[in-house]
Amino acid sequence: MRYIDLRSDTVTLPTAEMREAMARAEVGDDVYLEDPTVNRLQERSAELFGKEAALFVPTGTMGNQICVNLHTRPGQEVVIEERSHMFNLEVAALAALNGVMPRTLRGANGILDWAAIEPAIRPRAYSVAQTGLIAIENTHNLAGGTVTPLDQMEEICDGAHASGIPVHLDGARVFNAAVFLRRNVAALARPFDSVMFCLSKGLGAPVGSVIAGSRAFVDRALRVRKMFGGGMRQAGVIAAAGLVALETMTGRLEEDHANARFLAKGLMAIPGIGIDPENVQTNILRFDLGAAMTTSELSRRLKERGVLAVGIDERQMRLVTHKDISRGDCETALAKLREVTSEG
Ligand code: TLP
């Protein structure tokens, strides 16, 4: 039986073109910097993001943590949104691998602005931790795929830079943000000192993320990637799929956004479900179940009917649309949601 899998866009399967490119990929030992396909992916990524250089990494988590490692020193603080992936879902790597303290702030719908961040910047007093980094997540995953507008990101980066603080973009889904904002990813990445984006989410590649920044930053990142265990060998086999992802998959993301809006509209009509359609901006939607049922119970009942979905917590569900979810799948998922919620 085929499940309609709305748990994440990480579940996307590689396209036929990706598999073909993987089979044909020209490879070499990437620890010797000799894998031509990895090198091509890095050059293409740097070009697309308007940065001097880029580095292929196995996961988004490793990419984020390498950037934190390079920007900070142990004992410093990282200003970050309370529901961010780096704070909640990277197994406390901020503390465990990098020795930094998260200074969390809550932004409405996960969105921070400079007015919220500035008061959290530590004074240069010798008795307090120093602010080493500000990290922004765009789109914001757990807040429901919400997008920080470009002028807000620019204001944050300008303010931070004036205080001598670097800013990192967790752009796991930055292509979705770019589609929503109708700008290219270079415009979104421009004010940031480093950016991480994922090939393995909405873009459908089986593995891999990329970090981009200045040439000097990426040269240093090479050492930290090796230290974190991310030095890969004939990685061109997976980088080849990443190149296909960049060339063929970014143009179709609007379809996923339209499907998310379609799901949101359907959900609004279901009694007891709380959803704000204004916040359904990209391919992730979050809704409240109220007191009627827990998300674990809803997940269980949906699974029996062929739909996979998981909760952010016991009250809030997350649905993610992606290339392997059609409009028909969304119609079926809505019908199943109606069925299970009317059961009481
Ligand atoms: N997100 C995954 C899970 O970890 C929750 C998902 O299914 O959405 N930054 C952001 C904003 C992310 O959403 C993710 C993955 C990452 C970083 C980490 O990427 P990976 O999974 O490649 O380490």
Q: How do you describe this structure in short?
A:
With 344 residues, the chain is α/β, with parallel strands linked by helices. Helix content is 41%, strand content 15%. It contains 14 helices and twelve strands.
Q: Which keywords apply here?
A:
binds ligand TLP; 41% helix; Aspartate Aminotransferase, domain 2; alpha/beta; 12 strands; 344 residues; Aspartate Aminotransferase, domain 1; seven-stranded mixed beta sheet
Secondary structure layout plus pairing:
Elements: E1 4-5, H1 16-24, H2 36-49, E2 53-57, H3 60-71, E3 77-81, H4 85-88, H5 93-96, E4 101-105, H6 114-117, E5 131-137, H7 150-162, E6 167-171, H8 174-181, H9 185-189, E7 194-198, E8 209-213, H10 215-227, H11 236-248, H12 253-268, E9 284-288, H13 295-304, E10 307-308, E11 310-311, E12 316-320, H14 327-342
Parallel strand pairs: 1-10, 3-4, 3-5, 5-6, 6-7
Antiparallel strand pairs: 2-8, 7-8, 9-12, 11-12
Helix pairs in contact: 1-11, 2-11, 3-10, 12-14
The protein binds ligand TLP.
Ligand TLP binds near residues 59, 61, 85 and 172.
